[in-house]
From TrEMBL:
GO MF: serine-type carboxypeptidase activity
Organism in which the protein naturally occurs: Streptomonospora alba
Family matches, as InterPro entries: Beta-lactam/transpept-like, Peptidase_S13, TAT_signal
PANTHER family listed in its UniProt record: D-ALANYL-D-ALANINE CARBOXYPEPTIDASE (PTHR30023), PENICILLIN-SENSITIVE CARBOXYPEPTIDASE A (PTHR30023:SF0)
Keywords: Hydrolase, Signal
Signal peptide boundaries: 1-48
NCBIfam families, per database record: PBP4 (TIGR00666)
Family per record: Belongs to the peptidase S13 family.
GO biological process terms on file: peptidoglycan metabolic process; proteolysis
UniProt protein name: D-alanyl-D-alanine carboxypeptidase
Amino acid sequence: MPNRSHPASRPAPGTARPRGLAASAGSAAAAAAVSAALLAAAAAPASAATATGVADLRSDIDALLADARLEGASSGVLVRSLTRGDVLYREEARTPLVPASNAKLLTSAAAMEVLGPGYRFTTTVAAVDDPGDGVVEGDLHLIGTGDPTLTAGAVDELAAEVADSGVTEVTGDLLADDTHFDDQRLSPAWDPADEPYYYSAQISALTLAANGDYDTGVVDVEAEPGTRAGDPVATALHPMTDNLALAEEGSTGAPGSASTFAVDRARGTNDFTARGSLPTDRTYSTLRTVHEPTDHAAHLFAAALRDHGVHVAGAVDRGTAPPRAEAVAERSSMELGDLLVPFMKLSNNGHAEILMKAMGRETVGAGSWDAGTAVAASALWRLGVGTRGVALDDGSGLARSDRLSAATAVRLLDRVRHRPWFDAWHKALPVAGAPDRMVGGTLSGRMGGTAAEGNVRAKTGTLTGVSALSGYATAADGELLAFSIINNGHDGGAPRGIQDAISVRLAEFSRDDTAPVERPTAAQRVAPGAPEAELECSWAGTC
């Protein structure tokens, strides 16, 4: 068995590079400085106690990674002390692996660097004609820039502002302008089979958020059974608009019977169908994507205008607003520094993709994945995070063509600490064992009752056969550690118990490990219980 814990450098394997995210060459001077620093740290004298503490840590992590659940898998692991600068553990640290949602560490950091923590998305209602007399002669334009917080309530407020301005009639059409981004709704790197599910929603510069979590490009689906077996099931979509259609084909099942009820959308349409049996003692709730989110937003706005007494004579359609159109009403999102909380805590894929396109639009005038990933690469390089071994075809990590090494993840975790926006970024990371989902996020149900609770702040990531956890832990003596664990190719569920056990061990770590302590075995550290789930808890609606 190879010596997993030896921190000596290994030759870097071949690297994958995406379109728009090619690796840049680092300077020889910078590389020499880094090498000298590492050699100096390695040569520094260490007490016997220090050596024992580090050796024990390495031995324990070795044992955890030898778990049968990781047999045949690739595990990139790196633990670095940010207090002392030395590597405490390394295994396949430079191997580019599929990161899943750990890609959001890169996207969020790049967005804070490019857009800034005070960046806001705007949604504008504009007209060419001066509506001073209450009538817009011509078209009314709804212009989006990608606001992921545009809820039904926010749309109603925009309509109310139009009405409050004195507008009562629009003689032309209501035209939705989503040209701030390109018209590529789904990344070609995504699996088409994921399209109905909210973590793979279509991306548009004008989209609705279905709920307070700001899930974009989806509708909230709720269903209630009847009182007796055979009764119809009452199903509703929120927010419902007149361009969506729902066929009710479900029926109520006997209490205690199996539920076969589901609501699906025919691909390429907004035709939803409710089918199957829903027992009298069950309810149904899920999210489903919509086709063409721009149209969904435009039709909801049209309905809100009607509710506020504004009559639109023409049709609801899409179109580019003329440059001379002037604002009648406008809404701004929360600042990016605040938006990071629902984005990172709940691992929101839509937010990641919107930010990626927004970076491209704001920097080079192209709201596309290609432009966004290129801009993100430049931002990462400015942060001092080389992109060797990094590949991003999207912002969320849903693409299986994405690549990230544990070494690069730890480098990012180190470098962002020196940026003025770090406090907001750090606050947005999920916190182990914190029950408030806007604090604990995807770590709410993990590591509670351990030394990691309230201590470890880290980003999770899960796809089938892919699991990751990267972030910070404060050791027992107050030493700040950065770590990254990326598992690929494991069978069965995600090995979160192993990741948690490593994180807890880091929270317990002390270099001065001379006192006789009874440390649990590696097997005891791996949390027993239910099988590991395949999806992020936020994706499965369980956190």
